[in-house]
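User: Show me a protein chain along with its predicted structure.
Assistant: Here is one chain, sequence first, then structure tokens.
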Amino acid sequence: MHFLLMAIFAGVVATVMAVIDSERHGLRAKALYGLKVFAAFIGIGFVIGWVMYFIPM
């Protein structure tokens, strides 16, 4: 469930950031930027999750 919510959030944020980005003008450039942002969100989420796994509570 957590991964699904993280993926939905990452997808929405990546889509919005790709659409409002003024530096990239082509549809292909915007799509690649959106995919990079999505991958960054998911990757950073996994890294933070693994770091938090080893922190004792």
